[in-house]
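PROTEIN DESIGN WORKSHEET
SECTION A - STRUCTURE
LENGTH: 294
TOKENS:
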């Protein structure tokens, strides 16, 4: 068993331990706690419409698919458990990025204060005020974040419950309302945007709190600026693995293939303003560290 597999296994066990706390009530957006039913809603497949994506975009290297190809196979649907790491308390060595009270750890891209709304223990995107990013930068980390797409369904495909978690603003793990909402597969919830669809669709209904547990490793370049390690990520969505140490082929632009341009391994984490009133809560991060270096 590899060191990475041991780390993933330990994280899965520790996060599952948070279920006892979460069962007090974490399934819906709001302040009141309510018991979580063991019977979960079942997502039904929706017929795929034509022109779901693009066929005039570049081919993704090593695949038969265009960037945002609507004909690419849709990930199969998995009904996740009632809860997983929802409301998981941060470990003792975690850096708390959002505890439900203020945006002191966040800022706009120009360094000015973040303008999103904070209430009832969550932050909410204030559409068109701009994406926000952490003031600090991190390399190689475990990130826990919870989100809820709008309870009032408006729009479809990429226009419905859209946001993203972007490392350094350029490596995106997609956030999207994918409950009975078909879109191009490399743009689904949990996709490495424009590159790799998630293994499965583990989305919960609109307005329901969902969790991402992400293990991120930054890319590296040598002294001659030659790429020696690509960025890779493990993504667990509501307790279901979407990616395991999957490499990014580069940055994640819209309708194009990305590139790797040298930068420091330490990077900020950005939450995207895509003009939808998305909500986020309980955001914390742990630096992975190194073996035999306490």
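SECTION B - SEQUENCE
RESIDUE ASSIGNMENT:
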């Amino acid at each position: 068993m590899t060191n990475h597999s041991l780390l993933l296994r330990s994280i899965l066990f520790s996060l599952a331990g948070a279920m006892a706390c979460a069962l007090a009530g974490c399934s819906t957006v709001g302040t009141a706690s309510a018991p979580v039913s063991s019977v979960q809603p079942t997502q039904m497949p929706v017929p795929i419409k034509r022109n779901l994506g693009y066929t005039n975009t570049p081919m993704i290297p090593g695949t038969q698919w265009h960037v945002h190809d609507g004909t690419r196979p849709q990930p199969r649907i998995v009904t996740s458990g009632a809860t997983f790491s929802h409301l998981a308390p941060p470990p003792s060595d975690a850096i708390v990025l959002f505890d439900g009270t203020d945006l002191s750890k966040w800022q706009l891209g120009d360094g000015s204060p973040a303008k999103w709304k904070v209430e009832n223990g969550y932050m909410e995107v204030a559409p068109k005020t701009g994406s926000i990013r952490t003031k600090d930068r991190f390399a190689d980390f475990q990130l826990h974040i919870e989100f809820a797409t709008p309870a009032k369904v408006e729009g479809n495909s990429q226009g419905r419950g859209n946001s993203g978690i972007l490392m350094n603003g350029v490596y995106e793990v997609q956030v999207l309302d994918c409950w009975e909402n078909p879109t191009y597969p490399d743009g689904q919830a949990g996709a490495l945007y424009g590159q790799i669809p998630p293994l499965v669709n583990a989305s919960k209904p609109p307005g329901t709190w969902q969790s991402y547990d992400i293990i991120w490793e930054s890319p590296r370049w040598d002294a001659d600026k030659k790429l020696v390690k690509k960025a890779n990520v493990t993504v667990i969505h509501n307790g279901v693995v979407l990616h395991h140490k999957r490499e990014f082929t580069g940055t994640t632009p819209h309708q194009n293939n990305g590139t790797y341009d040298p930068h420091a391994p330490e990077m900020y984490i950005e939450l995207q303003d895509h003009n939808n009133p998305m909500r986020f809560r309980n955001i914390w991060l742990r630096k992975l560290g190194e073996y035999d270096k306490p």
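SECTION C - NOTES
The CA atoms of residues 119 and 277 lie 13 Å apart.
Residues 13-34 have pLDDT under 50 and may be disordered.
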